[in-house]
Amino acid sequence: MQRCLSAALCLASVSVACASSGGGGLGTWKGGAGDDELQLAGYQGLSWATVYWLLNTRPDGVDRLSRAFASGTGANEAWRQAFPGLTPEQADLELHDYMKHGQYAYGEATVAKASTSVAARALSEAEVKALLATLAAHALP
User: Can you tell me the distance from the alpha carbon of 76 to that of 98, in angstroms, rounded to the nearest whole number?
Assistant: First the structure.
């Protein structure tokens, strides 16, 4: 079984989409433009709590969810396929308990050092202008 960042990002997206507007749980979120920044930050926190809860307690379901998304299955159906029988109410209770008492699992990996090289050269006037235009386009307002 392979757990990867793409699965975590899929889960974060789904859990934000599933965060409820009223109870703060895993119901159907109908929020959007009217939500203030504090609400949105809460949804983001809930989404990552959901990711960690599922990765640590239901890794096989995470794999099934990732595969369902990869095949183009919609969020609600993907959830039903990945976590059969897990109702939003049950998920709320389990997530709440995990947030209070859960243990985080971790793994270790050995990563080979990448070989890199740096080459310095003078930029042409056109390259400088293109670089400055790119920086200006991405500058903060």
Answer: 22
Q: What is the CA radius of gyration of the chain?
A: 21
For 99-133, b/e burial (b = at least 16 CB within 10 A) is: eeeeeeeeeeeeeeeeeeeeeeeeeeeeeeeeeee
Pair 69, 6: CB distance under 8 Å:
no
87-113 pLDDT tens trace: 888 888 999 999 999 887 777 889 899
Inter-helix orientation angle 59-70/37-57, to 10°: 110
In this structure, the chain runs to a length of 141
Name the pLDDT band for 4 (thresholds 50, 70, 90).
very low
Q: Tokens at residue 46, please? A: 């809930």
CA 99 – CA 49 distance, rounded (Å): 7
Q: How many CB atoms lie within 10 A of CB 39?
A: 15
Q: Count CB-CB contacts under 10 A for residue 84.
A: 9
pTM above 0.90, yes or no: no
